[in-house]
Amino acid sequence: MLLSPFVGLLVLLCLKNEQKFLIRAVSVVASGISLALSIFTFVAYDKGLGGLQFVEKYEWVQTFGITYFVGVEGLNAPMLLLTGIVIFTGCLTMWELEDRTKEYFIWMMALVTGVFGVFMSYDMFFFFLFYEIAVVPMYILILVWGSTRKEYAAMKLTLYLMAGSGLIIPGILLLYASSGLNTFNMLLLHGANFSPWVQKVAFILLFFGFGVLAAVWPLHTWSPVGHVAAPTAVSMLHAGVLMKLGSFAILRVGMYLLPEGFQYWANLMMILATAGIVYGVFVGLAQTDLKYVIGYSSVSHMGIVCLGLATGTIDGLNGAVFQMFAHGIMTALFFSSVGYIYDRTHTRDIHELGGFSKIMPVASAFFITAALCGAGVPGMASFWAELLVFVAAVQVFPVAGLLAIAALVLGALFALRVVQSTFFNEPNPKFVHFEDVSPFLGIPRMILIGTLLFFGFFPQIMVSMIKSSVVPFLQGM
Amino acid sequence: MVFSDPILLGCLLTVFLPLSAFALIMIFTRDNPKLSLAISLVAATIPLIIAWTFFFKLGGRAPIIYNFDWMVSDLVKVPFGFLLDPTSLVMFVIVATISWLVQVYSIGYMAGDPGFGRYYADLSLFALAMLTLVISSGLLQLYIAWELVGLASYLLIGFWYEKFSASEAGKKAFVVTRFGDIGFFMGLVFLVIFYGSLDIATVNSAAVANSMPPWLITTSGLLIFCGVMGKSAQFPLHVWLPDAMEGPTPVSALLHSATMVAAGVFLMTRIFPFFAASATTMTVILAISTLTLILSSTIALAATDIKQVWAYSTVSQLGFMAMGLAAAALASGTLFAGYYHLTTHAAFKALLFLCSGVFIHHFGTNDFFTMATQGGRKLVIPMACITIAALALAGIFPFAGFFSKELILTALAHLDNKLWLVLGLFGAFLTAYYSFRVIFVMLFPKSPEAYSKVPGHIAHVEDEAHGHGAHGHADDAHGHGHDEHHGVPWVMIFPLLVLASFTLILGFCQDYLEKLLLGASHPHAMNYFLLVAAVGCALSGIALAWLDWGRKDAKCVGFISRFPALQTFFIQKWYMDHFWRWFLNRFIYGIFSKWFTYNDRRVVDGGVDAVAFSTVGSGRLLSFIQTAFLQYNLLFMVVVLAGVGIYLMMGR
Amino acid sequence: MNAVSAWLTPQTAATAAFVMVIGLTILGALIAVGARNIFHNVLGLCVSLFGVSGIFLFLNSPFVALMEILIYVGAICIAICFAIMLSEPLYLPPPPRNKAKVLGAAIGSAGIFVFLGLLLKKTQWTAAPERSTDWSVTTIGHYLLTDYALIFELVSLLLLVAMIGAIVIARGGRGNP
Amino acid sequence: MLLFNQLQTYLYLALVLFAIGLYGVLARRSLIAILISVELILNAASINFMAFNRFLAPHPAVGQVITLFIMAVAAAEAAIALSIIVAVYRKMKSINVEHATELRG
Amino acid sequence: MDIMLFGPELFYLGMALVFFCLTLRRQVQVRLDYQIALALSAVGVLVTGLCLFQQGDLFFKAYRVDLFSQIFKFALALGLFLVLTISHNLAAIEERYQAEFYFFLTTTTIGMMMLVSSVELLTIYVALELSSYSLYILVPLRRGDGIDVEAGIKYLFIGAVSSGFMLFGLSYIFGATGSTYLVDILPKMNQLVNSPIGIIGLLLALAGFFFKLSVFPFHFWAPDVYQGGANQVVTFIATASKAAAVALLLRLAVLGHASGYNFTIALVILSVVSMTLGNLVAIVQKDFKRMLAYSSIAHAGVFLMGVLTITEAGYIGVIYYALAYLVMNFTVFMVLSEVAADGRDLQISELAGLYRRSPLLSMSLILGIFALAGVPPSIGFTGKLLIFTSAMNAGYFWLVVIGAVNGTICLYYYLKVLYAAYFIDDPGLPVITLSLPMRLLNYALAAIIIGFGFCPDRIVELAKAAAKAVL
Predict the structure, then answer these.
(1) Which range marks the domain in which residue D64 is found?
(2) Is residue E358 part of a domain?
(3) CATH at residue C43
(4) Which of C76, C92, C108 is the last residue of a domain?
(5) Chain segment B392-436, per-residue pLDDT in tens
(6) Nearest-CA distance from B168 to chain A in Å?
(7) E94 — alpha (psi -120 to 50), left (phi > 0) or beta?
(8) In a 3-state reduction of DSSP, which class is residue B132?
(9) Residues of chain A whose C-beta is under 8 A from some C-beta in E?
(10) CB contact under 8 A, D36 and C125
(11) Predicted confidence (pLDDT) per residue in B520-573, tens digit
């Protein structure tokens, strides 16, 4: 799975700039293969058996105890599926791209390789390596193909995330050094007895380091700016998948290796998460740029993920991972719809837009679906995730949980406000002539909606998958 | 397995047929009205048949429960299932029937609308959600359906989304009900955490009281009642319902009078024993619902929009039902009174709306004064039906409303504090007054000038424009129905007749229903004083309406105009909308949102930028170390070296 | 006389000579860095170098002292003189002193002085346990061709490089006015 | 103990020479004067070597050899420095170090 | 004496001889000189490669040939070869001096090769001076209006003062231990734990290498020389010469192992200040080479971080990173000198439109820059991580934190370069065409940067063996 985008990248490198169709086709095929593989792993994963499956392991640098160690378990299988779906739809979404196509897809593929790598790695070295690979191409993707203050945004995003890395490196190395095992293998490190000091320090470093990418409040400000500037598919990937890297990493590295540190800082996590949930909603209410609105909704939703993680209960973790998945798909849908509209109208100001349900009913249906999902309407995957998180949160942190639930009202207001002014009311005559989404471009969005609804109706498929790993995970803590 | 069990199959069909209809229409046949209609009707008819079949076949039998795992996490276990007991069966029938009738009615009402397909898709979505709600076996499933109902309501209210008021009303409805739902949700979360199950059957059992402390039961009960407040439009969350009349009238009939808003009351009956376990809860409910009753009745007597009148009437009647249930609970009575009123109300209120819909459709206005002056009474069947329904609403024998109201008043009478009863009677009086205000105006129209003094009524000429603006779509599509006077299509008349007959029949099904619901019919000790009082109130209300509006030389201003302050207060709807608007603008947008945004830009993001700038700035500052003068550089080097060296020497 | 002779022991004479040599060295150095005329600086350097070679004499190394005079005074100072004549005209009045710079330089060098002085003060020197007493020039030559043969070669290469470099750099401007 | 028989004397002397040289490097404007000061610094190091050679080292020849090499290196350094100084003068018409201020920041 | 032991040095001596002869000719034959130089240096790489696994002592144990020295010699040979590959267009150097240019490059390489093998203080000093003097001469060789000689004079004097300090330090070491041989000094140093003379002498002695590596506060020459020197010369200074300095730091730092805390605390200070200062000041630079100079100051801090651990892991990291730094820094300089084909100084903004003018160069630039910034999967990332790991292992938690934070700061100015290359475009700028060998070189560099970044195992094993040789 890791290979297919990488091979795609290599093939793309060999193609000429002019062969645009071929370039697109190759990237779509490559991402399609990774999607197929991720679906395969998701389906073929033996939940009953649990644990790590599809393991690949090679000694890499023995002197430093680095192994190439990838595998799939219940926690990352949903993430892989998410990545597969989002990258595939992202590639399809950007089919229309004309400007520097080849480079674009090359960077995309690099990014995706990194993302898959992070989700699958069980070696901290590779985990971090892939993490960086996933983050850095963002700079160029935003800079070259972005819009709206892209220089500022690209720089801010990259530096912010790299500052996060600046915390992660000491964190990871502290674990490595203080374990005394001379290994980066997380499964082995899990058995190490870290002193309380190491637990606390390393956890907070990792939490904030990865928290930047997960847009944990108050480290979130790069995310709206970045989303606004990024081109459609990049926003999709970024909000949809990359932000999950952060929360996944908190789970996988932080909580898994440092249970005591987690216990110590759980309250902080909870406070920040709740702050993010409430805060994101309120700030989102005041935004007029569609992508900003989505950006802040992401902040809010990632707060839910973080809250779920902070609970440290089975329900909470199930919910958090499920929410990562659901939010990923949902945000991808959001951005792909907005991207479509923006590509046509070149504005994202909700006051200027209007009546789009009339002009492009299909495109707006996509957006509205996403908005409803964001508001936590049942029948969509995110409802279940939020349910789980909230139950766990009220159980563990009653006040924060109730506050978070209360924020849902505003979440609805938030979503509907945008929907109303963008898609309802009288159409702006400037935009009446635009065409609706063509069936071909509709495919990726349909896939996303289909996924949301599928897991909305059959949440058990996802939950049992996640649970198969969460239970041993928590026992390990 | 599914096919071997007809009951389960029926349930599944009930749920999945509308679902597939919704999906099919949305994805494929949105642009094809005929096909969409066919799909939707099929998906509505089969549940109808199933509902009636179940009603008669399973009516007296023990509850049938099906449960399947839907999602099993750790603490949270959500089953997907069906619970067929009398409570759900009655509602099942009501929903299926009215839903079907409205779908039929809409064939005429919505004909030619460009969003016809979408309309039926949304109706199917509603049917799916509402039917699932009714027959669900667990509270969480119920909650999910509850939310979906809200979603359908949102879509249908904002059906004419080009219109700002419509989309605004949809948003308002969704957000306000969501406000209540959050409470509901929190209540459920409490139940999950402290009780561990959301199965309706177990929640209703005595086990709850044993495993949860009383304060918790009260808290969760009140929280769950928040949901009821939102959905059933109880004070102070009632504000969305009148606005929801922006939707097409059949939608108002179906969702916002008969079924969806009744879902709140249905929820109360559904877990009546749970609610009843806490007297505090019930007292609060009683107070709120009484307030709602009075409030909405008074607003209704100042309204000029026919749908607004019925909307406020709905609010008040819902309050009445809640009163009935609360009173019954406090006086250890049964849920029957409230539930019975729900049933009858569904019939006559749907009838009222559908009749009004005919008028609206025909005259292109919502203002009943205008309808009257333009000859509304010439539409005989609708006029007759609306009168029947109004009589039922006012609680006049032998119409359905009489019996059910009587029961509720009886329940109120059982309470120690007779204030509730007095208020209930006052409500009945007001109800009779405002409903017959409409009827008398329609039946005995005066000249347009006579109505010019009515506050809120807009003079004829502007009215035309207003009407067109308001319902441009229905009208334009219709080729100006009232110019040609080609009569009312049968698809619209037929549902009226069916409902009218229900209105007539239901009153006499009391015993049957009671037996069905409670297992036994209790002989009612007729409280003759109460009977007289109730009928007297109703009649005096009608009489007052006659004096004010009906008789030849009526002043047509209403008695309330004697108290201008009160009248303004009522016209302004007790300033509740203002309050909410103020709250939203002032607190949510004005304080929190604005302040948080400012904070985000300046403090959080500004801080980050400041760090970046100071980094660059310090770079600029440090670059002055690198002067062009060789010797300064050397000096710096030497001094640093000396400094480090001396430090090391000292440290030793 | 006796007192004088008692006072004028060889040690005293040597000490006096040593003090003179030190004075010469330091005085020369001061002239070398302090005088404002560049030729005076060179002369100061020469004086200082003579002093240093005297010190080398005190350190039992007449050979090195001789080489010091030969190489430094004979070669380097002459080269510097040539360079002076090739570069700045001497008749230009020297620019006024920059007080801040002088002060800074003084502080810097004083800092180093303090630092290393502290170091010297704190250090206990220990002589090697077995010390050879072979001071002959032959041994030096022997070392040059055995233990330090590589450096010997390196230095020759270094001088070659310096020569060619000097030619290349110094010649550079002339063809390119 | 006689003054000239003490290691410390020589070491301090070398240090003084070193400091004077350093002062010259830091204070003088003329590039040639700076070169002269550098020569002083090298001489200071030579004195150090010779002193250690005289008082401490196991093989007294080693220090002398080192000093000889330092002289050679100093000569090479002087040659290169002087040639560059001449080049500086050619290009900039000045050997004042304060005039070489093109490169900064 | 086995000729193979001294093979590389002899070969380069021969090469210097060839160019010495070439300088004597009357007529100028630029192409021929270049071809000879390239061919000879290629052979030199081969020779050095062949001698990679030689081991032995020469010149009365003043000269040690082991894996450590041979790896660095190989790096130096490679550096020379690489610099010569981009010397095909020596626009910055007058044609009649090009033979001298090759000559001095060769001699400085010899000096560095001797440097990395020397295990005797005086040899180290003289070899260092040999390599430095050649560079002092190379810097003002540039055709220019004065900044070249200005850079040269600054380089020279800062170098002279540094070597003065170094010599002073060496004298103290000599005095304290009575020997100039590292093997003899090491045990004596261990006895000097309680006396400051050992570590002060050592620190002063390291000044020469701090100067070469441009560690704070000996860094002042770097920006000026980078800017003032010819691109090719600066490339050599920035690549090969750093590797040699690192090698010697590694060799000498071992001496400080015994003196423990005080020695390392000094290095920690220098490392932190170097990193921070270099990165901060680099942010505000506009001249590309000047920016790279500050980046080299910052990198010096990173090298120090590995050196000061004085552990095997740290040494492995530093050796790996030194090799990596050579390649990645060269990559960036190659792009620079190809873009500035007329030998001028390149402003960062002048990289505009590089993605269009030459996609290949822009790819190399990205890889080089990312590697310098420590972004995976590049050798720079792996190297940095190895160094950080070792520092953390040695207990320098805060040092690693500061290093990691610096990793973020440095990204800012590296990204500015990419910004210029990828985002700004000036349609007036012509397309850059590369010759086939240059294209191959680009691909090879890319392959090395990515390949060894992703699969560092071989190099790490080699570095491990080498580190064992010094420790």
Answers:
(1) 29-98
(2) yes
(3) 1.20.120.1200
(4) C92
(5) 888 877 788 888 888 888 888 887 777 888 888 888 888 888 888
(6) 7
(7) beta
(8) helix
(9) 17, 59-64, 100, 103, 125, 128-130, 132-133, 136, 139-140, 143-144, 151, 154-155, 158-159, 162-163, 165-170, 173-174, 176-177, 201
(10) no
(11) 666 665 667 777 888 888 888 888 888 777 777 766 666 777 777 777 777 777
